[in-house]
Amino acid sequence: MPSIRRASAVVALALTALAACRDPHTHPRYEGAGLPGPRRGGTFRFAMDGDVGTADPALSADTTSMIATRMLHECLVDYAARGTADVVPALAERWEVTDEGRTYTFHLRPSARFGNGRAVTSRDFVWSWERMLNPRRVPSPGADNYRLIDGYDDLREGRAQHLRGLTTPDDRTLVVRLSGPDRTFLHALALRFAAVVPRESVEALGDARYGTEGVGAGPFLVEHWEPGFRITFRRNPYYWDPERPRVDGVIFEVSIARHLQFMRFLSGELELAHNYSLSTADYLWIGRQTAWRPYLQRTPMATIGAFMMNTEMRPFDNVHVRRAVTFAIDRDALCRARNYRIQPAWGLLPPSIPGHRDALPNAQRFDPAEARREMALAGYPNGYPDEVELWIGEGEAGLVYGQLIQADLARIGLRVRIKQASGAVYYGALGRPGTVPMGFTGWQMDYPDPANFIEPSFHSRNIQPENSANHAFYRNAAFDALVDRARVEPDRARRIAMYQEAEQMLLRDAPWAFVYNAVDLSVVQPYVKNWVPHPVWNYYPGDLWLDLPTRAWRAARRDLAAALGPLAHLANPGGAP
Amino acid sequence: MIAWLARRLAWMALVLWLVATATFFGALSIGDPVQTLAGPHATARDRAYIRAHYHLDRPRTTQYAYFLGSLARGDLGQSFRYHRPVTELVGERLPRTMLLGVMTLAIEFVLGVAVGTLAAVKRRTRVETAVLGATFLGISLPTFLSGKLCLMVFAYWFGWFPLGGYGTTALDHVWHGVLPALVLGLLGTSSEARLVRNEMVETLQADYVRTARAKGASEWQVVVHHALRNALLPVLTSLGLSFGALFSGAIITEQIFAWPGLGRLAYESVTGFDVPVIMGTVLLASTGILAGNLVADVGYAVLDPRIRRA
Known about the structure:
The complex is a heterodimer of chains A (577) and B (310).
Chain A: H1 2-20, E1 43-47, H2 63-72, E2 77-79, E3 87-89, E4 92-98, E5 103-108, H3 122-133, H4 152-157, E6 166-170, E7 173-177, H5 185-190, H6 199-213, E8 220-226, E9 230-235, E10 249-253, H7 258-266, E11 272-273, H8 280-288, E12 296-300, E13 303-309, H9 319-328, H10 331-337, E14 342-344, H11 368-377, E15 388-392, H12 396-410, E16 416-420, H13 423-430, E17 438-444, H14 450-458, H15 477-488, H16 492-509, E18 512-524, E19 528-529, E20 545-546, H17 553-564, H18 566-571
Parallel strand pairs in A: 1-10, 15-16, 15-17
Antiparallel strand pairs in A: 2-3, 4-5, 5-7, 6-7, 8-9, 9-10, 11-18, 12-18, 13-17, 13-18, 14-18, 19-20
Chain B: H1 2-30, H2 33-38, H3 44-53, H4 60-72, H5 86-121, H6 126-140, H7 143-157, H8 170-203, H9 207-214, H10 219-257, H11 262-271, H12 275-303, H13 305-309
Helix pairs in contact in B: 1-12, 5-6, 5-8, 5-10, 5-12, 6-8, 7-8, 7-10, 8-10, 9-10, 10-11, 10-12, 11-12
């Protein structure tokens, strides 16, 4: 027995010693040097938990691959780094739209070059787009964005070898003819699917190897690709913009688990910790550290989280039940439960998307009395008699939302049973008619235009026997006609007003209960200057510069403390910098 | 012996075929890979193109026949996500997981034998109690907990080890592998230590050990040269068997320590529904386990003629 007591005492002592060790990273390890103005140089390091499948612009579609693809490849046009993400010139210095929006003429910059030094010509664009759109060449998931280019169908079906809608009067002029006007076409050209690739590099390496070893015309070149853990980029000396990027290189570490990313950031091994690095506990912790707080940023994202209701299935075939659901959800409670990593949404169009209104007429809101009134109008004053399935995909957040709205809906007499499924099963079921009565869904934009939020999820064209993108199976001929007119409307103000009218129809018909917009969280080291999350491209280091770190005397002292290990922490329990 | 070995190899081939078949039909019945490949808003026609590109439009039995045919040629197909041959991907990752595996086995062997022998020699003392307590903890602690704890304390707080990753040079790879190998080897070390202790306790009471002591051999000679040698046989067998099982442990350990090996690839292939890579990693893991068992059995058969006759 005495030995047990002694062993317990030793364990207790060890635990106390461990508890006495304060987190050594409550202060940034390195400060800025205090240099004036933007300057060139340095390496920017960040990490993601996923891996880059390929950086071939024709194929790259997932979040992590897109980050690498944006760094390597360039398009005719791009998005402004701040604000509402307007389309701005990139490899094309200017363009004209003629023939009532059917013809686009692009003029390439004289300085447009690939990373191998060769000038980019208009013929390179033709070759790159024909490669991307030819399904026998590469199975691009982005091809449909370009369906309006004249000759698209013939190329896709194998009836033609070339896109007849593309012509090249000279090396610096590209004319694109569309089969019909489309005011979102410039957005499609800013997507990396439409990036230019050098034919000689693709042919020399082959399609598979081009994805990891090839050069593009983007701001960076691959210096070293170590599969599964790190990609080292260096600045492209031939990049068209002589001012940007300002960093000499980027180290992009992939497949780094979230907890590890945060530890490495705090230890000074990464320059950025972002939404995918910060668990809620980490985010709350760093928000409490006064030394770190100035470097923490919250930016609303152009996403919408929602609960969709299948308008073809009972009881949601009744518009009053759907409206009742929109009034029953306490969005603030959801935001609290997620520690404000989301903010409440009352309509479809998120902030930063043209057409968004803070004072939205007929906004969906939390109003239990109104919800009960709608249930009565639906013919269920005492509640709906049967239980309804609420489908949730993978992940913990969806389950939290599901449980909270399960309680909200129970209060208006709608009993729901939560059914959680793997991603593959969930999305398969959502797109199948008559399968999912209610489900957690949402939209993350492809490009910052209201059309991208309204058409894919609500136009009846997107109802199919399998894989419908219109998960609510919402059909409204007036809505479809309005959205079709908006797509070709040349006047920007009128076009936005039409989308706002379409949003009003969705608020009235309630195929979705709009619930939240995600908030992007990021924290950078003190020496990272001019860090503003890009409205479209994740973690793109185009504008930032590094006020390169000086090892302050306290950083040196902390290094010594780390070398001494627990003894140092015990000797300096306050952990003062 | 040759007939016995041929029979074992035939069984191995049968088990591999069963695993391949079950994984093939299992993976494809979970969902539609085209859903993941095409993205949420691809049109039906685009889906059809992608389906045709990966031959997913053929009848399932035809796909299965293609798959078996390719497998027989050593071709595991092309990854949906990486757009590269699976054999190439696996070839890049396998040496890294092997390095981690070898380091883990070395740690299991050296630490397990040392600690187990110490416990046996210091029987009925506090040392034995401490060893039994610690090994009990080692066997019970799940890797996701011990891994994160070790990372937090030894790498993040004290800075004694790198914060995960793989390093750049060969020596760096080994250095980065120490902490994950210790964590991955915690369970193995604990069970080896217990095995060695039990074997040694028995062996140290054997007549020939008493004879050695009576002849005046030093305690070191008695323990290391006489007793340990005989106690090691079952330990080697147990290590052989645990080699294949290391792969399943590596899935979690590689995830925690960002070790870019096969475990990480397997995890990502499942979350990204990359069916050819799922197939490749499952088949490789099965082959590893079967090969480990075979080596252990052959070792036993060589050492013990009774097994060969059985």
